[in-house]
Every structure is written in C-alpha cells, then in structure tokens.
Amino acid sequence: MPQATYNFPAGFLWGSATAAHQVEGGNANNNWSAWEAQPGRILNGDRSNLACDWWSGRWSEDFDRAAETHQNAHRMSIEWSRIQPRPDRWDEDALDHYREMIRGMLARGLTPMITLHHFTDPLWFSELGGWEQENAPELFEKFAAHVVEALKEYVTLWVTINEPNVYVVSGYMGTDFPPGKSDAQAAFAVMRNLIRGHAAVYKTIKRIQKNSAIGIALNYRSLKPASAASPIDRALAKFAHNSFNESFLRTLKTGQLRFSTQRAGIPEAIGTQDFVGVNYYTRDLVQFSPLAFRDFFMKRFFPKDAALSQSGFIANVPEGMFESLKWANAFGLPIYITENGVEDAADDLRPRYLIEHLHQVWRAINFNYPIKGYFHWSLVDNFEWERGWSQRFGLWGLDVVTQARIRRPSVDLFAEICKQNAISSDLVQRYAPESFNLLFPVN
Ligand code: GAL
Prior knowledge:
By secondary structure, this protein is an alpha/beta fold. The protein has helices at residues 20-23, 31-37, 54-68, 80-83, 92-107, 123-127, 136-151, 164-173, 184-208, 231-254, 319-329, 350-365, 409-420, 425-431, 436-439; strands at residues 5-7, 13-17, 73-77, 111-117, 157-162, 213-225, 256-259, 262-265, 275-288, 298-301, 335-339, 371-376, 396-398, 405-407, 422-424.
C-alpha cells in the first residue's frame, strides 16, 4: 500500500467557522428571531432559542475544544442587533462580551477572523426597509466603525459580509430567509446596497487599521451544464454562474454590477478587497426545462454519481472545491476557504468529504494559488436557518436539550490534520479508507 503525505504550507490557518445567531442563543432583537416566530417559516417549527448557549459563556468550552484539537484560528461573527439594539443606543456591555470572547481566542492560540454581517439584521433596521433603503450602507458603516474601533487591538482579519449572494437569493428572490419577497427589483436594490455597504466599510476599516486584511465570504456554487453537448444547458449554466458566483466580486474589480439581467455602476467599490473568502459546499448540474419558467427555465440537480448528505442537501463533489479556488485565484489576491462542510449527524460522509475536499485544497496550493487557511463549517452543530435543527454540520454534535457536546470521529480526524499540517496516507486509511484509492492511487 502506498505511503505518502500531502503537506500544507507553514503558517496555514486551520479553524472552524460559526455565526452569531446560529450559536449565541437569546438574540431577541434581530429579524431572524421575528422570522422564527412566524408559523411555517422554519422546518418543524424549530427555534434557535439557546442555540449553543455561547452568550451565557459556553463559547469558552467550545474554544477550548477547538484549541485542544489543534485548530489555530476561528471565524465568528458579531451580532449587529446586540451592539446597536436601537438606532440611538450602543450597548457597550455587548461589545465587552465580544472583546472577552476574542481575547479568549487569542489566549488559546486561535487567530480571529471576524464577520460583521452574517445574514441577520437588527429589527429596527429591517423595519426601516432593510438593505432596500438607500442609506443602508451608511447605517452598516456606522455599526462597523464602532466595532472595529473596539476590536482593532485584537483583530486584523475581517469579513464584511457573509454570502451576500445567498442573502439576496434566499430573502429577495425566494422565501427561505426574511423578508421572503420574490421581487427582482428589490433583489437588485439590495445587491447594489450590499456592495455599497461593503465598500464603505472597507474604507472605514482601512482608515482605522492600516494593516487589516478585508474580504467577503462568498458562497461559490459549482454550476455545470447537465449536458456539455447542449448549447442551451451551457448558456444557462454560464448565466447562473455569472449571476450567483461572479456578480458581487466582479463589481469590486470593475465597478459595474451585473446581476441577472440588470446593471448599475458602483465605482466606489473598485479595489475594496484584500483577500477572497470562498464558502464552497457543492455542485449543481443545470439543465434547460420549459417548465421551470420561474427559474429562468433552469432545472438544477446533483450529479448522479455523487454521494449525498443526510437530508440530500449537499452532494460530495470535491472537484468543485478546486474549481472554486481556481476561480478565486483569478482575482490575484490571497484566498481563504471561509466555509466548507457537510450536514451529517452520524458522521458517515463527513470524514470522506473532509479528506477529499482538503485534498483538492492541497492540489490548488500546488498550482501556487495563494491559499492561506481553511475554516470548517462548523465547530458544533448549530441553528441552520430555515432548516432549523434538522441539519447537523458540527465536528461536535450538540444535544439541544442538555447542551451536551458529542465528539464525532471527525473531531479527531480534523485534529490530526491540523496538528500535522498535512494529510497522510495513514490517516486516510484510518478515517476514510473509502477515499484511499482516490488520494493514493497505485497506478
Ligand atoms: C452557509 C452559511 C452558514 C451555514 C452554512 C451551512 O450558507 O453561511 O451560516 O448555515 O451555509 O448551511
């Protein structure tokens, strides 16, 4: 049996990612709490409730877990509605709380990457019209300035906005996220304002902190034609790719937003990115269907031969990870994988998914793509938005009733990779023998 090791570069960041609303619990002042309270919005009527109980202090034991298992970084977000519960009120205690958490990370050797917007908005902001309103970027910038001033001593790696593309598609083209509007005009206005907000915050952070590195965590969905021979499938896949994957980051290069069939100039966005953050989970095949008139005549489905996650939400397509990194590399900036993972309570697919995706990361590094770190989604099972508690993305499982953490085998798998800064054949043999031939072929 071949013996070999895939080594990662010195100084590589190995961590996990979380988001405030999904782990903190007791967030009463944001649009998601209100959304959860509406009947029929969340699968099984689930509520985030205590979530992982981080706000009462359980962040500390979870950061212990991360550090003890050799992670050296953590990505988390700051909840805007806690810092600014009302337009005229800044909660300094909440800021102290985040300061304590981030100091807690540093004390454990975890480099913080801090996200300023991860899907949730303060209720007052939503009631004013959310990201549709023209002055949304200024309101977001005020909040960000406040946070960055308070945390600049501890943090230099910032994500302004998490998955603006998912935020727009799920909340303004579909109805999974609040406000649940299917309105193309509103979707475009929100996209434009998110980009303006990002650009404003980028400039503010740079003014406060010269040595900062600022990016966006973009959800990259691999979108391929179902039939490579079909010009219409190819055209639709390209259209979907351009709208979903390209539009936001391309605007930061060109100053021209092209989203779906709409256009707008945002010249102030040019050059407002220091790294590319990629959230990669899966691939869809795109096929022309005359019945799918609501979805630009596009039917999407997973490749037939790909293993599916527990609820069928994710297909294991590791080549899509390489594709996303190749795409990110074209921006000529450092790259972080800001999220990647799979829902799998039984931890059946996760070891294989993790190893095969990291193998693709290693391949991309060997093409000299400047990849600086990998954040696994997620550290502990957490509240998965409209899917509630039905999906379990944690390295650690969570018993929502008792708050007990459950150590899945992937905890130890990931710990060994982080510790060795490498994937060895021995490790693959022990944790995912089914991946062995793929990573270490004999011929
Ligand atoms: C991403 C999102 C995360 C998490 C993950 C898994 O789209 O940024 O918050 O929910 O998907 O569903």
